[in-house]
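Two records follow; treat each independently.
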Amino acid sequence: MSRHHQGNGGLSHASARRLEYAVIGLGVAALLLIFQPFDISLFTAGGVMVVVAALANNLLPLAQPGMPKRSVVKAAMIIAMTFCAVLLVSILAAYLYGLLFLNPPDPTTLAGRAQLNAKPWYLHGFTWTVATIACALAAALALHSRWSARSSDRSGEYRRTTSLGE
């Protein structure tokens, strides 16, 4: 692009390419940190970077020459705000989960002994029953949509059209 595009706040070819490479490079660096075998803290940083890189991928459509820099900055701020809000909700949810469900049972009480001897949630018949019902409903919906599509094709229903030629 010419210099006048840079003067009005639009991205130049070079800056658009740098933005694109930075977003893609962030994802590659995150993957390298996740799959390194040396330090757990680097893995943790990589996990955070994967989420940030996934959100930053929303900037790739804006990495076009001539795109106003203001639009790119605004989109980056919305992405950062979304990340912070989701992080806060996640922290609150983890806290509430720990507060409500992770109190250690007291083995000296009857309820505590019952909790310690309880089956894990994934071994309960109720869990498997609900999962089976969900799969059966999904299959029934898929079969119903196929059946209704086939029956409407075979029934010869008159379909109104707005085309002049038909």
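The next record belongs to a different protein.
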Amino acid sequence: MTPELLEWIQDMNWPISSVRVDALLKYKVENIPHLKTIFSQSDSIWTYNIRTYLIKEWNTELVSELSSSLRVLAQTMDHYEDTDLLSIEILNNHRLIETDEITELFAGKLRDIEVGLNSFTKKQKVIFTELELKRLHILNTDAKGILNYIKLNRKSLNEKDPHENLLRRYQKIDDLVLGG
């Protein structure tokens, strides 16, 4: 029964998802083997939901049973859901990871992000800044124009999104390093 319940939290927008979370929280130990299987897959939204809604508040004994899976996830770069950073946070909160290892993980992630950021040209960065200024102007003056803006700038906007996401992750990791 537990694997079927877990499927309901693949997308927390489903109306029944929160009810399923409540039911799953009653079967923590029974969930562990299924969670390990899910963590070995590449569904970052599902693993994010599991970590956020199920195991984030578990006690250390239970989390330690997932520590090897969480370590693998912590080492894997997740540019969109930040499940790698959430895994580090959970491991750290339960004292299941050493500070030196966290520092090393963050340093590696920052290096990877810098490589990604350096792949964008100065010209692209100027275009991205101009696009953002246009977007803000449209939103502040005539929000109906946003669809036309997207249509006209689709290619550059598709290039801009990964750049902004890398910047966001860099800042988040930097904040964690300075705050931690």
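Discussion point: Residues 8 and 17 are 6 Å apart (CA to CA). How would you locate this feature using only the token line?
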